[in-house]
Amino acid sequence: MSANVYYELKECLTDLKKFKPILTSVKESERLAILKQQDNSDNTILMLAAKCGYLNIVKCILDLVPAVDLQELLTVQNRRGYTVFHYANFVTREYMSKFVSPAMLYSDQEGNTFIHCATSFGHTDIVKCVVDSVPPADLWKLLRIPNQQDQTTLHSLLSTTI
């Protein structure tokens, strides 16, 4: 049953009017299990929606996941080590950055965190949103994480502006 729901949701990623009734038909206690399912690239429905810029679907998912389950969903990693924060594109990333999460500290295969990716692609508005919303102690930890090239977020930010 849950595998079928996963694929039904995946087929409706572009249509909130079809997507939302399918997700709301799932018992609240079972939503996390379905939303944590991964495709053959280990991407969740939330990752796919964020990557494609389907902000209305991202908002729908985050609104319908019980608060106690939200962190668990946000910290799911795919085979490259990406969380939904890594996959969020410029449309969804700003919205996603409002969800302060331990997933922001997760690194991909190259050691890049969500904030490395945002700075590397010049998304200074997203960096500002994170800086404004993350507590100072956590922000300090986040900014100091080096990737495999021993580059911190500051290095990434400087390399895009030089």
UniProtKB/TrEMBL annotation:
Pfam families in UniProt: Ank_5
InterPro entries referenced in this protein's UniProt entry, alphabetically: Ankyrin_rpt, Ankyrin_rpt-contain_sf
Classification via PANTHER family: ANKYRIN REPEAT FAMILY PROTEIN, NO MECHANORECEPTOR POTENTIAL C, ISOFORM D-RELATED
Protein name, as recorded: Uncharacterized protein
